[in-house]
Design goal:
It is a single chain. The protein is mainly β. The protein has a single domain, classed as Jelly Rolls (Sandwich), CATH 2.60.120.10. Helices cover about 0% and strands about 45% of the residues. The protein contains no helices and nine strands. Strands 1-7-4-9-2 form a five-stranded antiparallel sheet, with no helix packed on it. A four-stranded antiparallel sheet has the order 3-8-5-6, with no helix packed on it. The radius of gyration is 13 Å and the shape is globular.
């Protein structure tokens, strides 16, 4: 079952992870005019978390033609989404619902 936190209230949680197994972590500024490929193909993916650290809602989907409200996941500001097992290993696309926002992702392999 996927995990999602739709609220703006988050709790800091930390646990040790070997850096060689984590890809990403960089931010991607998205807007409401263009869909971007947020995360590329990773056939060894074992976990993937996307966090909306910006100020507007983000739309996440497995297809490049993202339309609200038919998108797979809608992330409000401060929310995150963790993909379920068995994990999808192909591209993940993103677009802002309106305006722009900033997404950060963590792509884990080999766990």
């Amino acid at each position: 079952m996927p995990l999602s936190n739709p609220s703006n209230q988050t709790t800091d949680i930390s646990f040790p992870i070997a850096r060689s197994n984590v890809f990403g972590g960089q931010g991607a500024e998205i807007d409401d005019t263009t869909t971007i490929e947020l995360v590329g193909i990773n056939l060894n993916r074992s976990a993937l978390t996307i966090i909306n650290v910006g100020g507007n809602t983000a739309l996440i989907d497995l297809v490049a033609d993202i339309q609200a409200p038919e998108c797979m996941v809608s992330l409000s500001p401060g929310a995150y989404y963790e993909f379920p097992s068995a994990i999808y290993t192909k591209q993940i696309y993103a677009k802002a619902l309106e305006g722009s926002t900033l997404l950060v992702f963590r792509d884990f392999s080999g766990f």
